[in-house]
Design a protein that fits this description.
Uridine Diphospho-n-acetylenolpyruvylglucosamine Reductase, domain 3; Ubiquitin-like (UB roll); single chain; 16 helices; 5-stranded mixed beta sheet; 2 domains; 470 residues
Length: 470
């Protein structure tokens, strides 16, 4: 997997490590892309992995004295969904983060990581580009600011140098006169990469469009603007006819690609559809209603146990699993899932897809539900971990476990631990969930047997036992 795994505690330590970085050095925060690439053999001679998740001064969302909004490198998509500041100042980004993957993935995947990966299908790029966001790139020799629309040089290519850390995202909040809509088209509602996405931001005086920005993703080697649609919309009245014509112009500005998720002709046609949908949402001022006020994040609970004292020696792990303080020595070049199953001996979390899509390996890491197949094993050091075996207390099953039995919500049972973990974490966050909130909570878990009806009924019953569903 890797030769050396580093867990620095400060930005200065990160930059020191990066100063000697080569092509086989990678920064990891969420790991939702890198761990899949490692598993698939893309990085066969990976020298150094620099884990920045212990750097505490990289996890803030704040507004400075000049009114600029800052999102630092360790901020996850679920951190965005828990932020009133982002909902108020950057609604399109809020909308986009809600459509990213699943609650478990959003608890690890960072917004900065989504930008740096540089895939044109990534959901946070269109809204941040539309808001004219900048990135602050830091190295041991200095700091520079790069506009997001100048950051990309091609498919998965950026201007970032190997010795640089993208420390934060900076942008101006939307003005009271501005509205923004993000639309994603994918093969399914959750756990799917965008076939297409777009963001439209309008500056309005009544229904008169003073200014317009249209950005489009998964339609070219990088996310692009639609200059023709933007120019057309300025000075027009927002309505059915202007939305229709602007969407046609947006489609004309595309450079469609063909891949496994869709062909060029399909993308050309559907971009017109989703840009028109975004404009009509703005015309009806309905852009924000598609995201719940308090989305399910499966991240209720205590934070990390502590930070390593001094440099981690890469040869031992001290951790707390299911309430027990444990120590291990040896080689930890594996995933948290394999470490917990093979070294610790808890077989509840299951290996399924091993790329973060099925949820069978869900466990709690520092109070947050995560897919453990995409977490490096060293992250267990000085962490608090709970597996499905840790849900029962003093010999009594958790209400979710009890109701899964009572309702026959188990067939082959392979996916069950992941569903139970997601539902139990949701109950901490939403003691009285709606059915839609239950569906959101288990959207990162796949079952091939039950059809989900019994699973949802079991979770509803558990909520009645432990707080009452509505």
């Amino acid at each position: 997997m890797w030769k050396n795994y580093h867990m620095p505690e400060s930005v200065e330590q990160v930059l020191g490590l990066l100063s000697a970085a080569g092509s086989q050095t990678k920064i990891i925060a969420g790991g939702t892309d890198l761990m899949v690439e490692i598993r698939d053999g893309k990085w066969k001679e990976l020298e150094d992995v620099i884990d920045i998740t212990r750097v505490k001064d990289l996890d803030a969302i704040y507004q400075d004295n000049e009114g600029l909004v800052h999102i630092q490198a360790n901020v996850t998509h679920n951190d965005i969904l828990r932020s009133d500041l982002i909902r108020k100042t950057a609604s399109p980004l809020f909308q986009a983060c809600y459509r990213v993957s699943s609650p478990q993935l959003r608890n690890r995947a960072t917004v900065v990581g989504n930008l740096v990966t540089a895939s044109p299908a990534n959901d946070t790029i269109p809204p941040l580009m539309a808001m004219d966001a900048s990135l602050i790139l830091t190295s041991a020799v200095g700091e520079r600011e790069v506009k997001l629309n100048e950051f990309y040089t091609g498919l998965r290519k950026t201007v970032k140098q190997p010795n640089e850390l993208v420390r934060e995202i900076v942008f101006k909040p939307l003005k009271p006169s501005q509205r923004g809509s993000f639309i994603k088209q994918a093969l399914r509602k959750t756990q799917a990469i965008a076939t297409l996405n777009c963001c439209v931001i309008l500056d309005l005086e009544g229904d008169l469009i003073v200014d317009a920005v249209v950005t489009m993703g998964s339609i070219a080697p990088a996310v692009i603007h639609s200059p023709r649609a933007e120019e057309f919309l300025r000075g027009k009245r927002l309505g059915v006819e202007s939305a229709r014509r602007a969407s046609e112009l947006a489609a004309e500005d595309t450079k469609p690609i063909t891949d496994l998720r869709g062909g060029a002709d399909y993308r050309h046609y559907m971009m017109k559809v989703i840009v028109e949908d975004a404009l009509m949402e703005l015309a009806e001022n309905q852009q924000d209603v598609k995201v719940p006020l308090n989305p399910v994040t499966l991240s209720e609970g205590s934070g990390w146990q502590g930070v390593p004292e001094g440099k981690w020696d890469q040869e031992h792990i001290e951790t707390t699993i299911n309430g027990d303080a444990l120590q291990f020595e040896g080689d930890f070049k594996t995933t948290l899932l394999k470490f917990v199953r093979e070294r610790v001996g808890y077989s509840g979390p299951k290996p399924g897809c091993e790329e973060g899509e099925c949820g069978a390996c869900t466990m709690y890491l520092d109070g947050k539900a995560v897919v453990s197949c995409l977490v490096p094993a060293p992250r267990a050091h000085m962490a608090t971990i709970t597996t499905v075996e840790g849900l029962a207390k003093e010999g009594q099953l958790h209400p979710v476990q009890t109701e899964f039995i009572n309702h026959g919500a188990v067939q082959c049972g392979y996916c069950t631990p992941g569903f139970v973990m997601a539902a139990a974490k949701m109950m901490e966050e939403k003691p009285r969930p709606t059915k839609d909130e239950i569906k959101d909570a288990i959207s990162g878990n796949l079952c091939r047997c039950t059809g989900y009806y019994k699973i949802i009924q079991a979770i509803e019953a558990a909520c009645e036992d432990g707080g009452g569903a509505r």
